[in-house]
Design goal:
With about 170 residues, the chain is α/β, with parallel strands linked by helices. It has five helices and five strands. Helix 1 packs parallel to helix 2 and helix 3 packs across helix 5. The two termini are about 25 Å apart.
């Protein structure tokens, strides 16, 4: 199964792809989609949409997940991030994928074991779980963490479904 994680951002949108085979996870690809500052919002969103479509088409994930946004003190920045997050949800949905959503602390808990882990700890654990991966940026590392989190949740759901079938 191929899982795509997306860390939404208007300036930098991280993405990461992993393959999951049983308990083994393997890095496939990762990157950062960048938009130009000073360009109007609609053009930046279109750029993100177009670039993310290329990634989805090129890597053909089976599942996708997006990190949820947190509300900060700057309402305008939060709203703009919400627009970028909409693109991150829309593109995989257009490709026919169901998209999981995870709060940042849930991603950190799944990957590091602590919901309040620092970015450097997340990056370290992503590198430990995906040895040899050349990670493009901190945003790409976060996206790979989202993919790992989603893979863990999919595996747990699969085990639960199998246990229910066996008990039934």
């Amino acid at each position: 199964m191929r899982v795509m994680g997306i860390d939404p951002g208007l300036r930098n949108m991280g993405w990461g792809i992993i393959d999951v085979d049983g308990g083994r996870m393997r890095h496939v690809a990762n990157g950062t989609l960048r938009t130009l500052t000073g360009v109007d919002l609609a053009s930046r969103l279109l750029t993100l949409h177009t670039l993310l479509e290329v990634v989805v088409r090129e890597h053909a994930p089976d599942h996708a997940a997006v990190e949820q946004t947190f509300v900060n003190k700057d309402a305008v920045a939060t709203l703009k991030l919400g627009h970028a997050r909409a693109v991150a949800l829309l593109v995989p949905a257009q490709a026919g994928l169901t998209v999981g959503e995870y709060a940042p602390n849930a991603v950190k808990k799944a990957v590091v074991g602590v919901g309040k882990a620092a970015k450097v700890q997340v990056d370290h654990m992503v590198r430990m779980q995906l040895p040899g991966a050349a990670i493009d940026s901190p945003d790409a590392a976060d996206a790979l963490a989202v993919a790992l989190c989603h893979a863990f949740h999919l595996q747990s759901a699969g085990r639960l479904a199998a246990a229910v079938r066996a008990a039934g």
